[in-house]
Amino acid sequence: MSRPTVRSRVGLGLGFTAVLVFSLFPVFVMLSTAVDARANDGSRSLLPTSLTWDNFRFVLDEGGFATYLRNSLVVALSTVVISGLLALLASVAVSRFRFRFRTSVLVMVLVVQMVPLEALVIPLFIQAKNLGLLNHLFGLVVVYVAFSLPFAIWTLRGFVSAVPRELEEAAYVDGASWPRMFWSVLLPLVAPGLVATSVFSFITAWNEFVFAITFMNDQGSYTVAVGLRQFFTQYGTNWGAVMAGSTLITLPVMIFFVIVQRRLSDGLVAGAVKG
């Protein structure tokens, strides 16, 4: 195998730098505008001339973003816990047990994942209205769990199938019950896959906008994605508040990603190998 030449290394470095700048430039503009005292000035430069935290104070106090952050956190964490539990049990069922219509269930899960999101807005709105779930955070949790489950079930199914049955049988021989085997043997082995699906569920619930604005009419039930809309008015846009709100929306996702990133990379690599 030939060693890379200087020209190829320089090209690789330039390409890497270009991708990095392209990816981070929007984040830089968001942060610089959020702390710029002249954020709403049309002649402002990329670098803030004077720093201020007034945009964050305005967003949290007068903009009600503390309530929106709490609502989004409740919805996102509930979605992660419920979808993770249901997907894990469903993946164990389709991987370990043989029952009637098993293949049909798997195909239906895959078909549901292919339906465009926009096509389901009106049917789900009517169902939520009939069930009295409009303006309730639980209504959003139900919808987000439904959208997260297909991907989670298909991903976890590969992890569960890759666990040798001999390990489970060895646990039974040692006297373990099914719950003990599930908790002590199966769950630790599929944990990386569970983390990967949890990240997907969290991002789905945290960033979703269409269903949140369709289901929620009460301002006290808004999530952060809907709450950010109030800074866009017919008379103009408060760019300082928009960027401060965007920063507050981004931080929880970044913190969650940093916490689980090691498990996430293990899960993605293992999933790519196991299939």
From TrEMBL:
Gene Ontology terms describing biological process: transmembrane transport
GO cellular component labels: plasma membrane
Keyword presence, rRNA processing: no
Topology of this chain in the membrane: Multi-pass membrane protein
Pfam families in the cross-refs: BPD_transp_1
Family: Belongs to the binding-protein-dependent transport system permease family.
The name this protein goes by in its record: Carbohydrate ABC transporter permease
